[in-house]
Amino acid sequence: MPIKAILTDIEGTTSAVSFVFDVLFPFAVQHLPDFVRRHAAEPAVAAQLDAVRAESGEAQADVERVVAILLEWIASDRKATPLKALQGMVWEQGYRAGQLKGHVYPDAVDALRQWHAAGYALYVYSSGSIQAQKLIFGCSEAGDLTPLFSGYFDTTSGGKREAASYARIAAAIGRPAGEILFLSDVVEELDAARAAGMATAGLARDGGELAGHLTVASFAAIEPSAC
After folding, report:
1. Shared-domain flag, residues 9 and 33
2. CB 56 within 8 A of CB 50
3. Most-buried pick from 114, 136, 162, 186 (CB within 10 A)?
4. How many structural domains does the chain have?
5. What does the DSSP assignment read for the chain?
6. Residue 123 domain boundaries
7. Gap between the Cα atoms of 56 and 222, Å rounded
8. Are 67 and 36 in contact, with CB atoms under 8 Å apart?
9. Do 55 and 136 belong to one domain?
10. 206 exposed, middle or buried (CB, 10 Å; 0-12, 13-18, 19+)?
11. CB under 8 Å to 166, separation ≥6 — which residues?
12. What is this structure's pTM?
């Protein structure tokens, strides 16, 4: 079945893991507490704070306690949807102010542009919020890359190591899973995508192998029509 669409992870795949841990997370730690305190009464923020209370089991937590929970979640790299949403809001301010520029590997930029020009539909699936995904590509060091993409998916579609998540994404894209190529640097994610029927290619930028999957060190080595 020929590949018609490409679904890519971000962290470790299109972008350096170090950008997330060395730039984005510290920026959120520095700026999120004051952001929450200033905007806690706004509906979009208040909804996420209520989601934090629900997920933490602390329904009566005041704003300062919610801030503490969020910082604990950042420290443990917890994949919590309300945390990702709030981080996205904080990062948006940083991107818009020019304090942040999204890192995307040059080989990924080149390949994404070539694939888009060749007619492949491009999508993103990351544990970061859709808002954060749009920011990293929209305010990237290579300029605004968002016109290349047809859609974005995050943890609201399900966990990245669960086959059902990829089945949901294929349904949302409107294509059989076999027409979709998924790219990631995590073997468990690749396994889940394959279990849902997708083709896979693994990125191992520092060498090594993602067992059971085509493994490359660069986007330049990926030929979708051969996957």
Report:
1. no
2. no
3. 136
4. 2
5. ----EEEE--BTTTB-HHHIIIIIHHHHHHHHHHHHHHHTTSHHHHHHHHHHHHHHT-TT--HHHHHHHHHHHHHTT---HHHHHHHHHHHHHHHHTTS--B---HHHHHHHHHHHHTT-EEEEE-SS-HHHHHHHHHTBTTB--GGGEEEEE-GGG--TT-HHHHHHHHHHHTS-GGGEEEEES-HHHHHHHHHTT-EEEEE-TTS---TTS-EESSGGG--GGG-
6. 5-16+103-226
7. 41
8. yes
9. no
10. exposed
11. 177, 182, 192, 193, 195, 196, 197, 198
12. 0.84
In the block, tokens 């520092």 appear at 206
**pLDDT (tens place) for every residue of the chain, 227 residues total:** 899 999 999 999 999 999 988 998 899 999 999 999 999 999 999 999 999 999 999 999 999 999 999 999 999 988 898 998 899 899 999 999 999 999 999 999 999 999 999 999 999 999 888 988 999 999 999 999 999 999 999 988 999 999 999 999 999 999 999 999 999 999 999 999 999 999 999 999 988 899 999 999 999 999 998 88
Q: How many residues does the chain have?
A: 227
Residues 175 and 84 in one domain: no
- Chain mean position to CA 125: 5
- Residue with the two structure tokens 């290619």: 201
